[in-house]
């Protein structure tokens, strides 16, 4: 039988463990998102659960390809065959390199564009859809305007750097919400590995650039992006119990931080949806974290308007000083 001293000893250890876990949980949830712009949005209500400069305009990198594939699938049959042009083949990007004259199905080009982020595949889809990448970009900009991504503009189908090409993390969540309505997109962004076969027999074994597919069971899928100017980007859809949450990050420092920040966004979203925290939006470094109140939308919109001007100035300065890069993943 335990004596009083033993019981007190066990009790003190339990209290210590409880306090330690409570502290660790608080420390984890209080960590800041490193990226300059990030957001977690409740798909059911469209409300921001956590945001850091959610309307800051930044380069989209290969998150662009979600719109590329959406527009292409509205015009092309997945089993249609597409011949790789000289322009598509010469578009710089990651491996596998598609060669001029090779023939692929639209389905395989979609997997190459969304899973491996192959720029040549994006250009090939654009040319097959509209005759030229330039004509295709017009359709892309019409598409984002239609879905309400008002701060997004494209100048190419791949996401390679270019003057005027931009998006916001909030717009990216809108783009993801519409992309999931396309079964082939939903399938591709949830696929870990895939074998692509050209009509001439050349094969490419590709792996999804979204590493969270291997560690997060509730990850529906996502699209990565990287250029030197854009840095590391990611937009995703995640299941939180019975709710769907979209997350988006632009401008993270490295790929590991991208995954950590995404997991932070998911954790914050889980807390808010469970009633353990309140939605917050951090609009700029000069301003403190601001609780989100959906009961007084008029006052909130005024604050956002004032701070967005500051954010735009910061964004323009960053874009001016950044160097272009010919690689996007």
UniProtKB/TrEMBL annotation:
<protein>
    <recommendedName>
        <fullName>Peptidase S11 D-alanyl-D-alanine carboxypeptidase A N-terminal domain-containing protein</fullName>
    </recommendedName>
</protein>
<keyword id="KW-0961">Cell wall biogenesis/degradation</keyword>
<dbReference type="Pfam" id="PF00768">
    <property type="entry name" value="Peptidase_S11"/>
</dbReference>
<dbReference type="InterPro" id="IPR018044">
    <property type="entry name" value="Peptidase_S11"/>
</dbReference>
<dbReference type="GO" id="GO:0009252">
    <property type="term" value="P:peptidoglycan biosynthetic process"/>
</dbReference>
<keyword id="KW-0133">Cell shape</keyword>
<keyword id="KW-0732">Signal</keyword>
<feature type="binding site">
    <location>
        <position position="223"/>
    </location>
    <ligand>
        <name>substrate</name>
    </ligand>
</feature>
<feature type="active site">
    <location>
        <position position="117"/>
    </location>
</feature>
<feature type="active site" description="Acyl-ester intermediate">
    <location>
        <position position="62"/>
    </location>
</feature>
<feature type="domain" description="Peptidase S11 D-alanyl-D-alanine carboxypeptidase A N-terminal">
    <location>
        <begin position="28"/>
        <end position="253"/>
    </location>
</feature>
<keyword id="KW-0573">Peptidoglycan synthesis</keyword>
<dbReference type="InterPro" id="IPR012338">
    <property type="entry name" value="Beta-lactam/transpept-like"/>
</dbReference>
<dbReference type="GO" id="GO:0009002">
    <property type="term" value="F:serine-type D-Ala-D-Ala carboxypeptidase activity"/>
</dbReference>
<keyword id="KW-0378">Hydrolase</keyword>
<feature type="region of interest" description="Disordered">
    <location>
        <begin position="292"/>
        <end position="329"/>
    </location>
</feature>
<dbReference type="InterPro" id="IPR001967">
    <property type="entry name" value="Peptidase_S11_N"/>
</dbReference>
<dbReference type="GO" id="GO:0008360">
    <property type="term" value="P:regulation of cell shape"/>
</dbReference>
<feature type="compositionally biased region" description="Basic residues">
    <location>
        <begin position="296"/>
        <end position="329"/>
    </location>
</feature>
<dbReference type="GO" id="GO:0006508">
    <property type="term" value="P:proteolysis"/>
</dbReference>
<feature type="active site" description="Proton acceptor">
    <location>
        <position position="65"/>
    </location>
</feature>
<comment type="similarity">
    <text>Belongs to the peptidase S11 family.</text>
</comment>
<dbReference type="GO" id="GO:0071555">
    <property type="term" value="P:cell wall organization"/>
</dbReference>
